[in-house]
Amino acid sequence: MTATQPLYTFLLRLGDDHLILGQRVAELCGHAPMLEEDLALPNIGLDLLGQARALFSYAAEIDGQGKSEDDLAFCRVERDYLNALLVERPNYDFAHTIVRHLLHALFMQQVWAALEDSSDSQLAGIAGKAAKETAYHVRHTSEWLIRLGDGTQESHERAQEALDILMPYALELFEDDAISQAVADAGIAPQPSTYYEAWSNRLGEILALATLERSSGSVVLSGGRRGQHTEAMGHILAELQYMQRTYPGLSW
Amino acid sequence: MTQHTPLWEVFIRPRNGLSHRHCGSVHAADATLALQAARDVYTRRGEGLSIWVVPSADIVASDPQDKEELFAPNADKVYRHPTFYEVPEEVGHM
C-alpha cells in the first residue's frame, strides 16, 4: 500500500456514492410523479454528478496512472466500485427515492462540513462548493418526507416501508475500517462513525415531523465499501457503462 | 391531482434593484413546496435572487369583458405620454 492509497480509496468511495446515486436519481428524468419533480430530481442528480466528477478528477490525479475521471466513472468492473449499498437501491416508488436521498444527504452534510476543515486543501475546496448543494438536497427531501409521512394513509405507509427497508443500508455509511482510520490519522477526514450521532438526531427531528417511526433494529447491510454489491448494481452499470463499453474512448 | 396540489404563481427578482416579475406557475401542495418547486423549475440558469409564490386562487383579476371600459378610453389620450418634452443632453439615457 502506497502512502496515497487510503486517500485514493476514500475518494473513490465518496465519488462512487455520488455517481451511483446521481444515476439512480437521473433514471427519474421523464418519469417523476409530477412535472416539478421531473425537473427537481435531475437537477439534484446533476449536482451529484458534478460532485462525483470533482472527486474522481482528484482521485485520478493522485493515482498518477494517467487515468481520467471518465476512466474511473465508466471503465471499472463491478467489484471495483466502492459505493455504499444504500445508493444503489432502486426507485421502487417516490417514497424510496426520497428516503434514500435524505438518508444519504444528511450523512453528506456532516461529511462536507468536516471536509471543509480538512488538512487536504483540494478536498476542502470541493467540500465548500458541495455543501451548499447538499444543504438544498436535505431541504428538498426532508420537506417531501414530512409531507409523505404526514400525508394520506397510503403515502404514510409507503414512506414508513421505505424507511424500514432502507435504514439497514444507511447504517453502512457509518462503518469504520483500516482505510477510514488511515484517512483520519492523516487529518484528512474523521472516521464515519463520528458522524452518526448528529445524523441520527437530525433524522429523528425530521421523522417526528413526518410522524414516522424508526425501527429499533440495528441490522447493518453492508459490503459496498469492499466492492460487494446487491443484485441491483450490475443493472445500473449495464446502463451507465453502455456507451463506453460499446464505443471505447467515445466522447462528444 | 390539482385537488392536492393547487396552482401557484411564481415571481422572480433577477437582481438587486429590480422588481419581481411574473415568470410562470407551479403545482404544489403548500407554500413551502411551492417555493421549492419554483426554485427548481425557474431558477436553474441563475435567473433569480429572490422568489415569491402566490396562490393563483388569491389573485384578483380584471374581467376580459370589461376591457372596453377599463382600457379603451386611454387610447386617444396621447398627452399622457411624456413624448412632448425635449430631454436635455446632459440627462443621458433615461
Element pattern of chain A in H and E: HHHHHHHHHH
Which pair has the most extensive contact? A-B, 11 and 14 residues
Shape of chain B: flat
Q: Roughly what percent helix of chain A? A: 55-70%
> Which residue ranges of chain B are poorly predicted, with pLDDT under 50 across at least 5 consecutive positions?
none
This entry's quaternary arrangement is heterodimer
Rg of chain A (C-alpha, Å): 18 Å
- Total helical elements of chain A: 10
CATH topology of chain B: Ubiquitin-like (UB roll)
CATH architecture of chain B: Roll
Biggest sheet strand order of chain B reads 2-1-3
CATH superfamily of chain B: Phenylacetic acid degradation B
Would you tell me the structural class of the helices and strands of chain B? Answer: alpha+beta
- Average pLDDT, all residues of chain B: 90
- The CATH architecture term of chain A is Up-down Bundle
The CATH C-level class name of chain B: Alpha Beta
Structural overview:
The complex is a heterodimer of chains A (252) and B (94). By secondary structure, chain A is mainly alpha-helical. Chain A has one domain (5-246): Ferritin, core subunit, four-helix bundle (Ferritin), CATH 1.20.1260. Helices cover 64% and strands 0% of the residues of chain A. Chain A has helices spanning 5-26, 35-63, 69-74, 94-115, 121-149, 153-170, 178-185, 196-209, 232-240, 242-246. In chain A, helix 4 (94-115) packs antiparallel against helix 5 and helix 4 packs across helix 6 (153-170). The radius of gyration of chain A is 18 Å and the shape is globular. Chain B is of the alpha+beta class. Chain B has a single domain, classed as Phenylacetic acid degradation B (Ubiquitin-like (UB roll)). Chain B has a three-stranded antiparallel sheet. In chain B, a hairpin with a 7-residue loop joins strand 1 (7-13) and strand 2. The longest helix of chain B is centred in the middle third of the chain and has 12 residues, at 31-42. Chain B is flat, with a radius of gyration of 19 Å.
